[in-house]
Amino acid sequence: MRITVIAGGIGGARFLQGVRAYARAVDASVTAIVNVGDDVTLHGLRICPDLDSVMYTLGGGNDVERGWGRAKETWTVKEELAAYGVGPEWFGLGDRDIATHLTRTVMLNAGYPLSQVTQALCQRWQPGVTMIPATDDAVETHVIISAADAADQGLVTSASATAALEGGDYALHFQEWWVRFRAGIPAKRFVFVGADASKPAPGVEDALLGADVVLVAPSNPVVSVAPVLAVPGIRSALLTSRAPVIGVSPVIGGAPVRGMADKCLAAIGVECSAAGVGGAYGARSAGGLLDAWLVDTTDAGIVVPGVTVRSAPLWMTDEDATVAMVRAALTAGGVV
Ligand code: GDP
Ligand code: CA
Which residues lie with the beta carbon below 6 Å from any ligand 1 atom? Predict the structure, then answer.
């Protein structure tokens, strides 16, 4: 069996641990198509937070307590930068992590596409699944806020170039909105800059068209899954693939379990509920994403028009619990 998973960072990584364990037991192969919308360049280094979360977690090198970055991390470079007064101080770059970004940036500057760079980094981490970035092209998630809010936060003192581009509103990189402002500035909308012209990375279309099943991880629907779907070739491959597409809800009983996905959903006018997110993904038969939608037992009974809805416990407390989720998802889609 060939399982393809659409994933963001931490939620995607935890889910993939369960998919990998399930796949090992039944001798299936797993391909993860990972969001690149969070990627950002800082200090000249290309940083890919979601790819790194998946790679470190599946490779056993993640910090379990903190939830992101490397285990046994040290922060000397960050301290030295601060001593020079060089920011941004809101983005934590650990010393071990920096080695990943240096290696990646050197390879990118030499002309290798991100998909090949990812493969090279995975030589070390051996994640046990094939990891492919959604696209090799630059696609960045930007958050549109009002010019007044931007001025309040000291982001602009007068008309800026991004304000001109966004019709008087202000655009900031998703990482700045999320990490620096803790999603605290009202978002008007999200823009996946570069997505329209982007192409799926090599292997992505094949992984979608040749899969026996496509799973949508319980990742942030607005800023992890949507930027993957914003790559036109991925959207069309999903619509034409013969594999059932099964989503797993990242929202349980009206709350996003961990993190701040509720703030992203509010910005696009989607209710923070399993029904809201399932409805926003929509039925594949109506041009949407899903054939089946797995929700937590708390949310059993919800309805998403045109989509088979099933329930199971969706707390990824440990690997066994996550494997059970994966099995329930495959059952919901009629795969097993
Ligand atoms: P990020 O890119 O690092 O923000 O991670 P993802 O987008 O892949 O996943 C974040 C989402 O995972 C959060 O918005 C939560 O809704 C969801 N999530 C986290 N833990 C759990 C869990 O145990 N169960 C479920 N169902 N969802 C979870
Ligand atoms: Ca992310």
Answer: 7-12, 50, 53, 218-220, 224, 249-252, 256-259, 261, 314-316
Measure 85 CA to ligand 1 centroid, in angstroms.
Answer: 34
Number of H helices, E strands in the chain: 14, 12
State whether 308 and 218 are in the same domain. yes
With 60 as the cut, is the pLDDT of residue 159 above it? Answer: no
| Domain identity same for 100 and 231 | yes
HSE-CB at 262 with a 13 A cutoff on CA atoms is 13
Domain shared by 261 and 277, yes or no:
yes
pLDDT tens across 85-128, in order?
A: 998 989 989 999 999 999 999 999 999 999 999 999 999 999 99
- For residue 131, the enclosing domain spans 2-136+200-332
Mean pLDDT for the chain overall: 95
**pTM of the predicted model over 0.85:** yes
Pocket test residue of 15, 36, 219 for ligand 1, highest count of atoms within 8 A of CB = 219
Q: Which of 48-52, 150-154, 288-292, 317-321 has the lowest mean pLDDT?
A: 150-154
CATH, residue 219:
3.40.50.10680
Closest C-alpha among 133, 132, 124 to residue 60: 124
Instruction: Using the mean position of ligand 1's atoms as its centre, give its distance from the Cα of residue 277 in Å.
Output: 13
Angstrom distances, CA of residue 91 to CA of 47, 81, 106, 175: 11, 12, 21, 8
